[in-house]
Specification:
Elements lengths: L7 H55 L9 H4 L2 H4 L6 E3 L12 E8 L1 E8 L8 E6 L4 E3 L1
């Protein structure tokens, strides 16, 4: 006897297997979006450390401010150096930078709460920016 089609049990098993596979893929895709945002923020912090921080630090030394970047007039210069990632929850400001390195420069919420912390510069070292995952209470390097 020749079979012309699948029986009902075989079709149900195929549908169940496809459902399981699609649920795994959807979960992985959601994680990938969060990881992509975290990678974007990590790259953003790297740009702050390599170009923005040293440029403003040098300007501070030229202005006789001893390398400190915690002045309101330097905030106006930020747009000259970098494009900010949109949808920040706290407006970027250099005034919050401090010597401890836990001053909040800018914050974002992308599934988790992220903050970019900054350490103020001085005569011998430029400012430093670090990405902080507030939700998990960990610095991301």
């Amino acid at each position: 006897m020749k079979r012309a089609a699948f029986n009902l049990i075989e079709l149900i098993f195929v549908i169940i297997i496809l459902g399981i596979l699609s649920s795994v893929v959807i979960v992985k895709m959601g994680d990938m979006a969060k990881l992509a945002k975290e990678a974007q923020l990590t790259s953003f912090v790297g740009t702050l450390n390599r170009s923005v921080g040293p440029a403003i630090w040098f300007k501070s030394i030229e202005n006789g401010r001893g390398g400190s970047i915690t002045f309101a007039d330097y905030n106006a210069d930020l747009d000259k150096y970098i494009d900010f990632i949109p949808n920040y929850t706290l407006t970027p400001t250099l005034i919050n930078c401090n010597t401890m390195g836990n001053g909040i420069f800018v914050s974002y919420t992308f599934g988790k709460n992220y903050e970019v912390h900054c350490r103020d510069g001085n005569k011998t070292s430029s400012p430093d920016f670090r990405l902080y995952n507030q939700t998990d209470d960990v610095y991301i390097e």
